[in-house]
Amino acid sequence: MTNVLLIGAGNMGFAMLRTWVGGSGHRFSVVEMHEALRKRAEDVGADAYPDVSDLPAGYRADVIVVATKPQAVADALARSTDNLREGGLVISVAAGITIAAVSRSIGDNARIIRAMPNTPAAVGEGMIVCCASHHATEADRDRASALLSVVGRVAFVEEEDLMDAVTAISGSGPAYVFYFLETFSAAAVSLGLSEELAMTLAKHTVFGASKMALERDTNPSDLRAQVTSPNGTTAAALSVLMDVRQGLAPLMHQATEAARRRSRELGLQSP
Known about the structure:
Layout: E1 3-7, H1 11-23, E2 27-31, H2 35-43, E3 47-49, E4 61-66, H3 73-80, E5 84-92, H4 99-106, E6 111-116, E7 126-132, H5 138-148, E8 152-156, H6 163-171, H7 173-190, H8 195-215, H9 220-227, H10 233-241, H11 248-269
Parallel strand pairs: 1-2, 1-4, 2-3, 4-5, 5-6, 7-8
Antiparallel strand pairs: 6-7
Helix pairs in contact: 3-4, 6-11, 7-8
């Protein structure tokens, strides 16, 4: 059985933890300073402690998963170095924190996987993109994949610079979709539908369209064309959304570039 130490049981940490405990077969310990968050970690079956110093004497983790806020990563890792067994693996899910920053806190020879999950991990539908350090082995990649795939689909990139783009797309992406649902349903209300029906239509339309895109071996542009009759209602709406200056495409480019830029800034601010 693999001993996994999760440091930080906030939204992302807990989203992963509650799915792990139910399906992975590993033993999980959690370090979380906030009592309420620690209590809910205990409620799903993890051993939870307020501080690294409270872990049982001699405790050694095979894997340490760091899910704290970015500014707390360096201290969390530095204080938990003695709790990682020799040859153990560190997985960091903190936005913008580079492999080099993790290495400075845990040791130059550490085996590190930098991972960017997203909040749909809470329902087992996450998208987790990883990048491995030079010292990480193929077995480390497999271990990380096995652990993270419990909460969603796992992919690797070889160039760490791409992690800022990953953060901008899949990491922050759920918020874009949630905001789209807000504005989509608000538009439906403005057309006279009730708020309840408007939100139901918005949610199920997005869900159904996403499921079609995932399950059919068809390019989304082709799926769009199949729904769009010449001079019909869909074409009228798309003429607005596809405007080259003020439509959705330029807005998405601006939004994702802003997110990527912020991810880089966070990386530069890391100790």
